[in-house]
Amino acid sequence: MDVVVPEEVEKEKEESLEQEGGERGASPEKEKKRFFYSKKVCRFCTGQIKKEEVTYKNVELLRRYIMPSGKILPRRITGTCTKHQRVLVAEIKKARILALLPFLAR
């Protein structure tokens, strides 16, 4: 008959837990993969879009920053900085007043 010492029992438990890759009672819900999003950078600050291009006349550029429903996309979605978001909003509003962009999409 083999006599098992309590220390050996605990070592075996720890080894089995390490092999399983979790702690006691760890549910599969906690083991879900985490998604990491890259930080959005302002296209105007990096120079991808020239600041001179942001005018009420450049409708194609302004449409990128409008939802299909006609709403202006927020900073957290577009990634623009506060300074350039204000400029974008002002130019979009000018284009709406001049009927270059719709206030609401149908």
From TrEMBL:
Q: List where Basic and acidic residues composition bias occurs.
A: 8-29
UniProt GO BP: translation
Pfam families (alphabetical): Ribosomal_S18
InterPro entries named among the record's database cross-references: Ribosomal_bS18 (IPR001648), Ribosomal_bS18_sf (IPR036870)
One GO cellular component term:
cytosolic small ribosomal subunit
Q: How does it assemble?
A: Part of the 30S ribosomal subunit. Forms a tight heterodimer with protein bS6.
Q: What does this protein do?
A: Binds as a heterodimer with protein bS6 to the central domain of the 16S rRNA, where it helps stabilize the platform of the 30S subunit.
Name recorded for this polypeptide: Small ribosomal subunit protein bS18
Q: Which organism is it from?
A: Thermospira aquatica
Q: Which gene encodes it?
A: rpsR
